[in-house]
Every structure is written in C-alpha cells, then in structure tokens.
Predict the structure.
Amino acid sequence: MLREEGVVILMTQCDDNLTYIIGDGRVYTYRFRPYDNLLCEFLNELSVELRSSQGAFEYADVMAFAFWCRKANIVKCKTDFGGTNESRLGLGNVFHVTPSNVPINFAFSFAFGLLAGNANIVRVPTKPSPQSDIIYKALEKLFSFDKFLQIKLMTTFVRYEKNDDITRYFSELSDARIIWGGDDTIRYIRNISVPERCTEIVFADRYSVSVLDVNAVMALSRKELTVLAEMFYNDTYLMDQKACSSPHLIVWLGMSDGLTKERFWQALLGVVKKKYQLDMINAVDKYTLLCQNAMDLNHIYSVRRYGNWLTRVTLNKVFDNTDDLRGQFGYFYEYDVSTVNSIAHIINAKYQTLTYFGVNKYELLDFVINNHLAGIDRIVPIGKALDMGVIWDGYDLVRSLSRVIDLK
C-alpha cells in the first residue's frame, strides 16, 4: 500500500480470492463538495444508461435504482440538502460492506457515498446476479468517457469471500465505513478496527410493519383495490420479505367483520398468481414456518392458507418480541386494533419502516413522537417500502459522509 501525498492509494491484490470488478487496484482519494455538478451529471447519465440497457426492464429493482438516479430526483435531493450555509467536503475514502439478500443495495450505497463527495471502495455480494451485472456494465460504459475519468479513478468494486485480512486492509484505508448486514455480521466486522477519525455507519437487521385502515380499504373500488394490492406486492414479494423494510406484521385499524380483509387478501392473491414464481424449496420453508408457529406460538387466533401463494396468521395478542415473527415468501402476521397506540408497547429499536394506507401520516408521526418510541425511522405509503433515499435508518447519509468546514 502506497500513499502519494495523500492523493493516490495503490492497492495490491493481497489475496488470490480478491477480484476487482471495477477498478484496477488503485483508488484516488479526491474530496468533492456534496452534490457537485459532475457527480449529479454522472448519476443522471447512469440512470439514462440503465433505462436503455437491454434486459434492465425485467428487473424492478434495477429500474427503481435507475429512477432514483434520474436528474429530477437528484436535483430534489440537492435542493433539500442545500438549505444551509455550511461549507462541506466529502470525508475521503468510504468502504462499503454490502449485503447479499438485496441484489441492488450495493449500487445505492455507492451512490450515497459518491453524492457526499467521496471515493468509494465497495465490497459487492459474492453471489452473482443479473441485476448486478447490468449495473457493472452500465458503469463501465460511463467510465469510458473522458469527462468521468475523475469518478472512475475514485471508484473500486471488489468481490471476495469472508476474509479478515482483506477486510482489515480496506478498513485501514477508510475515512468512513458502511456496514449493511445482519447483527452477527455487524458485530463481527466491528471487531476489525478502523482509523481513529473514521466515521462508521451500520445498517443492522430491522423489522417493519404495515397499518391499513379498514374503512379506507372497504371504500375502494375493485380497480383501486387491485392497485393497492400491487403496491403491497412490490413491498413484500419482490424481495421475498427479506428486505428490512418489507412488512411482516399487518395491523388492521378499525372494526371489521372480516369481509374487507378477505377482499384485500383475495386481491393480493390475484396479483401474486400473475407475477410471482415460488420455488418448491421456498414453499417447503414457508410450510415449515407455519408448523413451527403452530407448535411454538401461543397467540394464534386463526390461520388461512391460499395454496402455496399466501399465508395469513391472525394473532389475538402482540407481545414485546413480536419482531421475532418473520414472514417469508408471502407469509404474514396480522392483528386488529381500534387505535394505533395499541401497538406502541411492541415498538423497539428494531422497527424501521411503517407503511400505511388510509391513515393520516401526521397521526402516525404523532404516534411515534408522542409515545417516545425507540423505533420506526420511516413512515411511507404502501408501495414505497423499498424506495431508498439519502435519509435511511435515521441517518442523513450525505451529511454523515461529509464534514463541515467551520468559518468564523
């Protein structure tokens, strides 16, 4: 490892299992101002390239990332960010450890680090995916343009299996380290030290919940109900409920004879049958979960299965460790309440996203604030659970990954 006046870092290939997906073993440390025009232009052209890429439209997550990178959204983010008189620069090198269960996460993490003005070393998932290949190809094309040479020199994507020496190597180069993963992964990597001034941001295992107002659902036309079901499908089935922001617990607000809920689930079933492909091994896993719940869970009021497509487990009580109840592949827990305050006692720091339909969002904000809750960092409409942004898990990432230059 060689630093030339703090500008260039030469990275030797310290293990045969280390593969450079993007980059050649060198990363130039260069600090831009957040939302520098070149950075914004790059992300917009990445959006254009992805939206014109052959096969990209087959993957909703790729298109969601492309849509997020478009000029209009980046300008909005920049406008929201620009409400201060602060002078900022990126921290320097950001080392990203990204998860394998959300294929496109590494691209968002890279974009956040870049917008904050940083050079980025991104450890991508070891499991290949067509989505990641599409992203790599688009980036390589943009990096062939002279105008993006500076960003190319600041960008390295690496792939390697679990290896303390390699992780330590990149961590020692870091001015910031971002860790995405389960609690065990985070605890493990945190044992690998970083420089004293390094900023560390962790995105741990989280839990999410959805609140639907019974009367609002009851009032929907068949067409409107189908739209709601499609949005709920996008929040859940697209990632097999593995994303931290995908709801597992469905809270029904208001009194119902059950017909309204059945109407909603039937609408969802119709969407699932059209769009979802359930592997047999996943169907077995889902049924195994049901058997385990039947044996271990004392508060089941009823169970309704719709073939292998959908499973509803209705609870007659929620408890402090309700966040242990994790659905998968279309497996949901549901609970009836007369007021959303009825679930305040179960909300802990594990809770990330609250999606809603038919409920006033400001009432939900008051629910979080007035109950002094440790959890729920996001309140978004159903259909927006997977929408990532520069504010995530309670962090303002562009501010967290840049520093203020105080001038008096």
User: Anything to note?
Assistant: Residues 7-205 form a domain with the Aldehyde Dehydrogenase; Chain A, domain 1 fold (CATH 3.40.605.10). The first helix runs from residue 37 to 51. The CA atoms of residues 253 and 337 lie 5 Å apart.
